[in-house]
């Protein structure tokens, strides 16, 4: 494992300490004689995991008691539909910002439910970017404003968030827990775990309790946020093992100094890569400098053939997952919280050598 660096955008790298602990506890969780995967979701062992995962998350982001923390199945894609089903009523308009592929998917689901207004559209802009907070065309009395905090595919990230009289809802799947955040600006935050929190199978939702109470009452129970608040995310059997890993990851983050400490590390890792990209004409950053992601560093080479060669040779050198998303091409280095600085340094060395041979 020490010779492989996983730059995959998701499912993504997990802390080695977490993987080792999960391995050690896989067959016998804390002396219970069975795996946590086999434990009852109503039993004492899993209940402790569930409660700690919620408490760790609340502590890491300083989430007040005005919010519920939920662990739901279906990932962020399920939230794309669940949000408008709950909060976009008949005759209402929801504001969405279109900043890339994942925002586009959220918008498509919302349009299946009700009326959507594009408060901003930067999807076609190159270099890629997200909207400016002060340039949004907001609807009076909008049901809510939805944004995607970090576009995993394009590598563009919101650096400051807008103000809105409507509730702000954010998909933070690819940068949750990576930087300090004023949760009070948002009415709902959701994030699939498989990029920065754990394995696929669970999405974390941070939702204002008063917003949940306003949700549609004529939905099937399982599609209502209030149902999951009332059941403490145990309305039906939760994805126990995924939540267990989230518990271990959030515990690991706390031992590392929390989100503020991780933000500094992430800035240093991303900064080193962007500096190398900007130091030469051989590499070109794909995202606008003001909107560059700390999590997904996207860049191009002079030709697609060179990009394919780069990805192939990097893979052979133990630098895995650097090929850009199929929809945009190029290269992408995803350097989430768990990604070590040593892996960034290894990539920097490879980039310099590749340029010498092919520049």
List keywords for this structure.
single chain; alpha/beta; Aspartate Aminotransferase, domain 1; Aspartate Aminotransferase, domain 2; 2 domains; seven-stranded mixed sheet
Structure description:
Helix content is 36%, strand content 16%. The protein is of the alpha/beta class and 359 residues long. The protein has two domains: 5-9 and 257-358, Alpha-Beta Complex (Aspartate Aminotransferase, domain 1), CATH 3.90.1150.10; 17-255, 3-Layer(aba) Sandwich (Aspartate Aminotransferase, domain 2). The protein has a seven-stranded mixed sheet, with helices on both faces. Strands 11-12-14 form a three-stranded antiparallel sheet. Strands 1-13 form a two-stranded parallel ribbon. Strand 3, helix 4 and strand 4 (115-121) form a beta-alpha-beta unit. Helix 2 (44-60) crosses helix 7, helix 3 (75-87) packs across helix 4 and helix 8 (258-278) packs parallel to helix 10 (341-358). The protein is globular and about 60 Å long. The mean pLDDT is 97.
Spatial arrangement of strands, main beta sheet:
2-10-9-8-5-3-4
Tally of distinct domains: 2
The structure class reads alpha/beta
Shape: globular
The percentage helix is: 25-40%
| CATH architecture label of the largest domain | 3-Layer(aba) Sandwich
The string of secondary-structure elements, in order, is EHHEHEHEEEEEEEHHHHEEHEEH
Would you count the extended β strands for me?
A: 14
Biggest beta sheet attributes: 7 strands, mixed
Q: Any idea what the CATH superfamily of the largest domain is called?
A: Type I PLP-dependent aspartate aminotransferase-like (Major domain)
